[in-house]
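lol so apparently i was supposed to do this last week
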Amino acid sequence: MSAPQDCPGCAAPDLAFAAHDHAHCAQDALARAEALTATTGARLTPVRRRVLEILLEEHKALGAYDVLARLATEGFGNQPPVAYRALEFLVEQGLAHRIQRLNAFTACVHPGEDHAPAFLICRTCHTVAEAEATAARAALDTEAARTGFQVERSTIEALGLCPNCRGQA
Amino acid sequence: MSAPQDCPGCAAPDLAFAAHDHAHCAQDALARAEALTATTGARLTPVRRRVLEILLEEHKALGAYDVLARLATEGFGNQPPVAYRALEFLVEQGLAHRIQRLNAFTACVHPGEDHAPAFLICRTCHTVAEAEATAARAALDTEAARTGFQVERSTIEALGLCPNCRGQA
DNA sequence: TGTATGTATGTAATATCATAACACGTCAAG
DNA sequence: CTTGACGTGTTATGATATTACATACATACA
Ligand SMILES: [Zn+2]
Ligand SMILES: [Zn+2]
Ligand SMILES: [Zn+2]
Ligand SMILES: [Zn+2]
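anyway here it is w/ zinc ion bound
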């Protein structure tokens, strides 16, 4: 596991649209996940680890049943709770995120770092990039506070065209 | 139909948590919806209008099947497409919004006005307030632009505690 | 070592959310 | 009065998610 700055892709993982060494990108995220769970005591069991690997294969979101199909062919259980439980674990540990618009899940690109993520979803190539949403989240908190509402969890997602697909249009 | 400033609740409809004359609030939104569809030529038929009325009863989000159950008792069709089609129409016309986190729908509190909505969802009383998200949306657009991504539609939702429920905790 | 306890996994059944495909009725244009 | 667009209704099916219960497996500790 190398330091983030060794890898352009990993140093700025919100640039999922840019060409980058994704094998490294995925390995790095997995290594971070292992390090993180080791410190928290959370158990990254074989199913859970495998689900994370599957999510890390691409910067896309996978539905629970897509993940389940993969697991089933690899000898794990083939009933929905198998996938949903592993995904729930990953989300709770901050190793994956749920994309509400897609009813699907994507691996977190910088697990362990406290971050407010937004997700940029390309409607053409279905790439999902995790972007920095600190400013948007702050704006949301501020607006909510005006009404006395206290934000606990936020969902910030954008649907549109990624730079690659824009070029082709 | 009175001007917005005549009604404290309607003038600041993002204050759904505050006590307000909700009958007026709902009537006003319905009147605006009628005016809007009259100008655009969209047909606010009986089912569609009734669905909007149902959504306007409370500042909550209703699932398609909740709406459908209501329609069925009133002599409309009782199959899912009846509800989904009416809801889809309302969303397209900007008379209702879909709440992604809840797989549910809520009436728009200021139809016809161009607005970037965020939704504040109380996890206790399930009230859904439509808040102003221009700032959050701008922050999202800016961050997306850094990666060359062009935002077409955004989902900005917050889950938390409304002022009333905070008081009771 | 044996046993209790908590946690993870597997499975069956079911619940919830959403759409495809087709039939029928209405209304306005030609 | 026919055609075509649109809205509504219905059947059937697909997609997403959870509940409940059974089984395996790890750890703690008598
Ligand atoms: Zn990558
Ligand atoms: Zn794309
Ligand atoms: Zn109101
Ligand atoms: Zn509340």
